[in-house]
Amino acid sequence: MESLPTTVSSKSDRRGRSSKSQNNSKPSLIMAFFSCLAWLYVAGRLWQDSQHRVALNTVLQKNYELRPKALTVDDKLMVLGCKDLERRIVETEMELAQAKSQGYLKNQKSVSSSSSGKKLLAVIGVYTGFGSHLKRNKFRGSWMPRDDALKKLEERGVVIRFVIGRSANRGDSLDRKIDQENLATKDFLILENHEEALEELPKKVKFFYSAAVQNWDAEFYVKVDDNVDLDLEGLIGLLESRRGQDGAYIGCMKSGDVVTQEGSQWYEPEWWKFGDDKSYFRHATGSLVILSKNLAQYININSGLLKTYAFDDTTIGSWMIGVQATYIDDNRLCCSGTIQEKVCSMA
């Protein structure tokens, strides 16, 4: 009977321990739960930080690729070398232009001189057109030599050619007639790149001087209109007296008012470029113009840049303003004048 309390007491102890263990497990579960939450939070932050680092690294890489590169000593030397090369190219181009102006043309086809090997005295270009066959024959029967006489004149150092361009319809009957006539007479200078037309006369002068310089080596290059009769021996004497004179721009010099009224004879469409006084600068009349070789060479070299006006005489005069040309006003070249010593007259 005495052992019963002990048994009862033992059972109550077990119940007490059981309740204590249950009480102790609840906080542990709560702590474990919060530990899991903390671990998930930390893991999430670490993953988020890694993503940010990847994005930041990508941005930095792009910026690094786009940043201005620091020039090394070699880079600077290369830049300086390029600038020096550019300077030398400019200097060489200027020297080349100067050499060309003095008659040294690279890749130029060989030019003709007299049979004695001397430089020709003059190349005389007589303007002509498709409808001027009778006028050409008239010249050939008067002051202009033909056949063997033309060759003998060339041996003296004077070349004479009729100057004409090509038809707008290249290869048509107009061109064929000129080719046939030239085959028989051999006294034409045909400007292959020029279209023969009245409105194209100012451009024709560029093609003439360029072609003449490229084909013949002469002291002077003479442009003559097809309404002019020449005293050939008188002209040759005049040119002989000027032989060796560089920069010579020779002719019957004049100036005058610029015609601003559209539809009037001698109308200049670009009259406003000639100033408030509307007056032409000094220039040789278009009937007969003589240029020394270096001036004709200048036209040849710069033909693509030279501006043309409505008339060929003022066009040539505008080119001469910008170069070291010596203006020689010789009244013997005033074809419409009345002096007896003149070397030309209106036909």
Itemize the secondary structure elements and their pairings.
Elements: H1 4-66, H2 73-101, E1 120-127, H3 133-140, H4 147-155, E2 158-166, H5 173-185, E3 188-195, H6 201-215, E4 218-224, E5 228-230, H7 232-241, E6 248-254, E7 283-292, H8 293-302, H9 312-321, E8 326-329, E9 344-346
Helix pairs in contact: 6-8, 6-9
Structure annotation, total helices? 9
The proportion of strand residues reads: 15-25%
Helix percentage: 40-55%
Measured between the Cα atoms of the first and last residue, the distance is 175 Å
Number of strands: 9
Which sequence of SSEs, written as H and E, runs from N to C?
HHEHHEHEHEEHEEHHEE
Summarize model confidence as the mean pLDDT.
83
Query: Which strand order do you get reading across the main beta sheet?
Result: 3-2-1-4-7-6-8
What's the multimeric state? single chain
CATH hierarchy: architecture of the domain at 120-251 and 285-346: Alpha-Beta Complex
Cα shape: elongated
Main location: Golgi
EC number: 2.4.1.-
Subcellular location: Golgi apparatus membrane
GO cellular component, one term: Golgi membrane
